[in-house]
Amino acid sequence: MEAIVQIAQVQGFTAIALGLIIGLGALGACIGIGVMGSKFLEAAARQPELVPLLQGRMFLLAGLIDAAFLIGVALAMYFAVANPLLASLTAAG
Predict the structure, then answer these.
(1) Least buried of 12, 43, 54, 62, by fewest C-beta within 10 Å?
(2) Superkingdom of this entry's organism (predicted)?
(3) Distance CA 92, CA 16 (A)
(4) Mean pLDDT of 31-49
(5) For the chain, how big is the Rg over CA atoms in Å?
(6) Residue 42, Cα to own-chain centre: how many angstroms?
(7) Does residue 27 carry a pLDDT above 90?
(8) Catalytic residue numbers?
């Protein structure tokens, strides 16, 4: 019975961690892209001749910001599907 309680606790804490990883990652990515986009528009208004150069760099950084979020989602899904903490607990029991 004690092993079932421990497995349930690990699954519960993992679900909370998954929500935090995905939620805070999405929040950070949205804020980062929003700040970067506003700075791009500000720079484009000040220096219109630099728009093509700035636009390429902005899309590169937007991709990197989004990739960091997707890496967090992939890690969260790994813990959701194949939880190594749960596997070690069941192997010990």
Answers:
(1) 12
(2) Bacteria
(3) 24
(4) 96
(5) 21
(6) 27
(7) yes
(8) 66
Spatial distance between the Cα atoms of 77 and 17, rounded to a whole number of angstroms: 11
Locus of tokens 């749960």:
86
CA distance 70 to 76: 10
Of the candidates 76, 78, 66, 83, the residue with the CA atom closest to the CA atom of residue 32: 66
Half-sphere CA count of 76, side-chain side, radius 13 A? 19
Residues across the chain: 93
Spatial distance between the Cα atoms of 57 and 32, rounded to a whole number of angstroms: 14
> What whole-number percentage of the chain has pLDDT above 90?
74
**pLDDT for position 88:** 76
DSSP label at 1?
-
